[in-house]
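Hi,

I'm pasting everything inline rather than attaching a file, because the server keeps stripping attachments. The sequence lines come first, and each chain or strand is labelled.
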Amino acid sequence: MARISGLRTLLILTTLLPLTALSYSVLNQTSAAIACSYLESTLGTRVFLPSEVSYQSSSKGNWVQTAWASPTCVVQPKTTRQVSQAIRYLTQSGVHFAIRSGGHSPAPFGANINDGVLFDMSGFNSVEYDAQLGVAVVGTGMRWGSVYRHLDQYNVTVVGGRILEVGVGGLTLGSGLSYLSDLYGLACDNVENFEVVLADGTIVNANKHSHADLWWALKGGANNFGVVTRFTLSTYPTGNVWGGYRVYALDAIPALFDALLAYQSVAVKDPYANLMMQAFPLNGTLGVLLNMVYNKPMETPAAFAPFYGIPAIADTVHIQPMTDFLASQIPPSLPRINWYATSFKTDATLFKAVEKIVTGTSAELDTIRNLTAGSIAVGWQPISTSAITAGRTWFVLDVGWWNAEDDAVANEAAASLIAKVEEAAKNYGQHVDYIFMNDAAVQQDVIGHYGNGNVAKLREVQRRYDPREVFQKLVPGGFKLPPEV
Ligand SMILES: *[C@@H]1O[C@H](CO)[C@@H](O)[C@H](O)[C@H]1NC(C)=O
Ligand SMILES: *[C@@H]1O[C@H](CO)[C@@H](O)[C@H](O)[C@H]1NC(C)=O
Ligand SMILES: *[C@@H]1O[C@H](CO)[C@@H](O)[C@H](O)[C@H]1NC(C)=O
Ligand SMILES: *[C@@H]1O[C@H](CO)[C@@H](O)[C@H](O)[C@H]1NC(C)=O
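And the predicted assembly:
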């Protein structure tokens, strides 16, 4: 710390110069500590150093411990101009950084960093509804719960997260699955405008008419192109829904898998019906959780008929406002979590095989069971092809555990289980070559699976907006653009 304060005097001289006048060669090689002092004295917003109390809460502001880190400092900008100034400086200085909106990803370093600057975007916390245009302008640091509650007064909503604590920026840039997706597409499909700070500090608006290439690239482009500060989102009418969750004992799993198969096998899926099933095969207390919602105030719709005959232990499904339904969702809570995603088609033989992999006996399940608080959650998300070409089942395997010493073992066991599921899907000819980013492990090459044509196009956009690859090289975390093949 002494070193940083010592440098502060020296930096006052530097701050008198306009940024553009700073010599590139002087700034290149700058250490993160010098960068932090510089930002603190010039930016006019809060910069937290490790000695400060706020640093502790912010550096550990990510949802689970696996994503906590020790940034050199945390910058909490409040205006796009501050982001622009900071990014321009870090780019010129060659200093590493990370960007966090809500920080709900468990991926280490996706939204945090060691030896570098963490942008805590929680200061971008406004939401403005424009009834005339039918849009909401939402700050990247907002949590979906606050967005929905604000919009509820106008009886409108946006296509956003299913868990209210999740942040707007990460979910939307990762593509974003919503209980409205079968009706209106993914969260990213509903972005009319991105306000973005580019690598050189330029602020641009990317939309259908202006920077349309960047607008396209940011839909699932994660942190590869710039720092998005605000999203303009399409709004839709909302009101009461029939929704809640049902809890089942573990021995209902075979019946529930049969019901999933029947629910997904219909020729034309009712887009108002949505569900997410989570089974906890290693924890009989938790059993199976079925979150279901019908996006109209209508009881027991036919779409969920395959589930109605299976006896539940608990049942909260009733007619209630959409936001109240969302508030009742139970996210898992363990200090350390990772998750892996894969996708496959609807097929009876494959469903049985997956059931066996996640509930049967295997070295991987034994390994996880042996860890302190070791558990898995098997998430089943039926996505209709009306929402996305790569629809069907977006499968997610969560693994949770307690101790940092177990990170490698837990990750390895989870990777091995998802590989078995993927192999089964391929063997039965049912694999869908798509990995849903928001549910993916950082070990998975999500963008590589967008297809070679898309990767080439994304690289073209990167060359146009970030020719020096700042967001590839100075932002090491998250899902990166793969090299072109
Ligand atoms: C730093 O300077 C070197 C040599 O001039 C250059 O090759 C490199 O790209 C610079 N790094 C950054 C991050 O600007
Ligand atoms: C929202 O819906 C409720 C219930 O239908 C209605 O009473 C209220 O006037 C609506 N508010 C607005 C702003 O449209
Ligand atoms: C199962 O989950 C419950 C509720 O989260 C927890 O209290 C319990 O310790 C878990 N049991 C095992 C064996 O993991
Ligand atoms: C799990 O723990 C038991 C008891 O300590 C041990 O015998 C067994 O080998 C362990 N299994 C795995 C897969 O780690």
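The chain has three domains: 31-120, 127-238, 240-439.

If the labels don't parse on your end, tell me and I'll reformat.
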